[in-house]
Amino acid sequence: MAVSAVPTRAKIIIIGGGVGGTSVAYHLAELGEKDVILLDRNELTSGSTFHSAGLVGQLRADPTLTLMNMHSVDLYRKLQQTETPPSWRECGSIKLASTPERMQEIRRQIGWAKTFGLDLKEISPKEAQDLFPLIDLEGVVGACYMASDGQVDPSQLAMALAAGARRQGVQIFTHTRVLEIKTTNGRVSSVVTDKGEIECEIVVNCGGMYAPQIARMVNVRVPIVPMSHQYLITENFMPQDAPFLPSLRDPDNLIYFRQEVSGLLMGGYERTSKAWSADYNTIDDIPANFNNSLLAEDWDRFSDIAEASQKRVPKMAEVGIKSFINGPEGFTPDNEFCLGETSVGGFFVAAGFCAHGIAGAGGIGKVVAEWVVAGEPTMDLWHMDIKRFGASYESPDFTLKRITENYEQYYDIHYPSEERKSARPKFVSPVYEWHKAQGAVFGEKSSWERVNFYATNIGNDALRPKDWLGNHWSNAVQVEHNATRNNAGLFDESSFAKARISGARAGEFLNYVCANNVVKGVGKTTYTQALNSKAGIESDYTVTQTADNEFFIVTGTAFSVHDFGWLEKMRREHSFDGVEITNITKDLACFALMGPKSRTILQSLTDADLSHAAFPFMNSKEITVGDIKVRATRLTYVGELGWELYLPVADGLALWEKIMAAGKSQGIKACGYRAIESLRLEKGYRAWAGEINTETNPYEAGLGFAVSLKKENFHGKAAAVAAQANLTRKLVAITFDDITCVPFGSEPIRIGEKIVGRIKSGGQGYTIKKAIAYAYLPIAKTEVGTKVDVEFFGTWRSGVICAEPLFDPSNERIRL
Ligand SMILES: Cc1cc2nc3c(=O)[nH]c(=O)nc-3n(C[C@H](O)[C@H](O)[C@H](O)COP(=O)(O)OP(=O)(O)OC[C@H]3O[C@@H](n4cnc5c(N)ncnc54)[C@H](O)[C@@H]3O)c2cc1C
After folding, report:
1. 351 in ligand 1 pocket by Cβ < 6 Å?
2. Does the C-beta of 362 come closer than 6 Å to ligand 1?
3. Which residues on adjacent β-strands are paired with residue 213?
4. Residue 1 has pLDDT above 50, yes or no
5. What percentage of residues in the chain have a pLDDT greater than 70?
6. Is pLDDT of 633 > 60?
7. Nearest-angstrom CA–CA distance, 190 and 183
8. 596 prior amide bond cis, ω within 30
9. What is the pLDDT of residues 386-445, one digit of tens each?
10. Ligand 1 near 368 CB (within 6 A)
11. How far apart are CA 712 and CA 697, in angstroms?
12. 67, 116 contact by CB (below 8 A)
């Protein structure tokens, strides 16, 4: 008689018993979730975890990730005091700069570490050598040191987390393989294992590199590929009583070290990466029995790393090698984790830790457990959200090309406005060839080629920003900015994500999801935010009512999966049956004609009356331009009179050429996205994932005007009311007189001697002739005229808080 060794029901099932799964289990238990089970097809830690190098560094390029890693350290310290300690050793860490550019990066990191209260400090090469006497200082420019970083035994960490979870009621079943996951009405409903079926409400896929296999059981694509990662351990050679060494990273030479007993562990990121069990044509296919296993040593690929290690630590050339590890680890296309609820209700993923999963595990467990319990993220997790990956990641070729590029640049300095080079072009607008012929320089967003600027527009090079922002800067942007302010600019925004919402209850549905009233009559366009239950801005977009029961939503290029996924979730969870959400991004081109001459230009091509009286701001109509049918919507994201024009892709090139020809005598210029950025910063228009996100509410972001508290109800209303009444911080505009000194994010802000915040976004304002930044500051510090200091690469510079918007405060130009 078959005996089912697993329960028949549990509220939450976690799949995978590595550091990811055990940490999610631990944190769910901490949050009071007792009806949780964890399943592993083999032993705990038998995936990537057991062969990890175990370095734990806290400072990352992303503020959220840094906070998560800080939580990891706090947790590992705490676990060290329990009866199952994870061998946490707070040995500190050193990062060397072997190039001047790296030293700049270190100074910048020291700056923003201050905003977290992290103990990162600059040290001299000699001080680095005092702390790690084995290093040769040849080529070392400088260094930094963080005393609270450390190392941990990865397997013991997973065991400690599992023990903590068990103590609080989580049941763990090893040698229990998940074979199938069932769904009912778009939600997970049960998990079938080789020991029986378990009904459940929520599944958390903590499968590491196996996560894509598991996700395929519910037709969800998780773009993770197992990549080979290698390190070696030397024989013991240091005196037993020598002081324990801090970890050491020398990213310019692609290597890292930590002490292992009285020898060294040394690994690195090879310039030639290698995927395992997947290639450009096939998705991952990890063998069913691959557990507690390693890959064959690949010395050929490791030889450059080994050579670099001997230059930096000459002893490496003398000591014997005790073991060489080649282990597979799940990497994502941008080296960030893959977290959150997928398109299937209740099916979460927490995987793809890209060789920093031990450092991240504590924080990952915390944010994912909170996400599961709250049904929405409790921090801004956009950079790690699985919903950042668009349709192109269905392709194994595209996915692996991106992962390869990112793996091989893991330790490189990434400058602002840097563009990915692999797997391009993927999606293009109908005007792509025209743009190319005119000297367009393209950027890529969510696999779409978009014009950044046209190199043929030659501007003033004297405005090139000092420091990093100057690296990918072009003097063409100011030319395009000025053309839009003075005459007209034509922008190709065909990549905008677009959806049609239809059905008898479409208006009722949207007025529930959106904070603004979006049901204002056919032909009306509304800017709105969709709030989460804490009044955080889950998304923002424009909604146009196109018929009694039909609406047209336009949102940012990168947000289609995220924003339309949120709409799907709201529809499912709040029973708006019959409402249809159709993604029509690829059906329509979109061009924005903006600037004081835009009416003259467009009017010359249409019989429709474009006067202010006949076609007011935030109105939308179907008009004919030449012989092409177009939906024209009068709005702006650059602060000028203008229209966004939506039309079938097939007519795109013809319309673009017509407008350019008609605008020639008016001084029209084809313009790119960099000019939009500069124009919108002057006007103070917010960007989601820039100044606003799920952690910011409309009132502190200065967007309260778009919240209709008059509506009887909408999602997040109670929290919005509370947020309005209890404002603790506010987004402010800060300007700097020197337009070449431009902050671009995370720099610390000081008033007097006190650090009061960090920069959210920044850029150049070519009309106001200043550098601009936005930041959230405590409400008491937001008075217009307040002088602030902002640290740029180790140097404090003065700016001032200014009234918003910085340009055209009376909105005269958009209501012409
Ligand atoms: C060589 C190497 C060095 C590294 N060094 C560091 C470092 O110094 N610092 C750092 O922070 N990170 C490092 N990492 C990364 C870190 O080890 C990983 O990010 C982490 O261990 C991944 O944990 P996980 O829980 O996501 O996956 P895993 O540990 O792989 O766990 C996934 C589990 O899912 C189970 N599973 C799969 N399919 C099923 C199924 N169908 N049913 C049930 N169970 C299933 C597997 O058996 C496995 O146990 C390193 C990685 C490697 C490879």
Report:
1. yes
2. no
3. none
4. no
5. 100
6. yes
7. 7
8. no
9. 999 999 999 999 999 999 999 999 999 999 999 999 999 999 999 999 999 999 999 999
10. no
11. 19
12. yes
Distance from the alpha carbon of residue 775 to the mean position of ligand 1, in angstroms = 37
Q: Whose CA is nearest to atom 41 of ligand 1?
A: 178
Ligand 1 contact via 41 beta carbon (within 6 Å): yes
pLDDT digits (tens, 9 = 90+) for 461-501: 999 999 899 999 999 999 999 999 999 999 999 999 999 99
pTM: 0.97
pLDDT in tens, 323-347: 999 999 999 999 999 999 999 999 9
DSSP designation for 236: P
What is the reported pLDDT for 226? 98
Token pair listed for 161: 């987390």
The answer, yes or no, to whether the previous bond of 805 is cis (omega within 30 of 0) is: yes
**Cβ–ligand 1 contact at 698 (below 6 Å):** no
Ligand 1 lined by 268 (C-beta under 6 Å): no
Residue 286: per-residue pLDDT: 96
Is the CB–ligand 1 distance for residue 410 below 6 Å?
no
Question: Which distant-in-sequence residues (6+ apart) come within 8 Å of 609 by Cβ?
Answer: 615
**Phi-psi label, residue 567: left if phi above 0, alpha if psi -120 to 50, beta otherwise:** alpha
Q: Look-up: residue for tokens 């990662």?
A: 229
Taking alpha carbons only, the member of 212, 735, 669, 747 closest to residue 469 is 747
DSSP assignment letter at 39: E
Residue with tokens 């049960």: 190
Q: Please give the DSSP secondary-structure letter assigned to residue 795.
A: E
Mutation pick for ligand 1 pocket among 52, 217, 225 (CB with most ligand atoms within 8 Å): 52
Residue 350 Cβ < 6 Å to ligand 1: no
What is the C-alpha separation between 116 and 69, in angstroms, rounded? 12
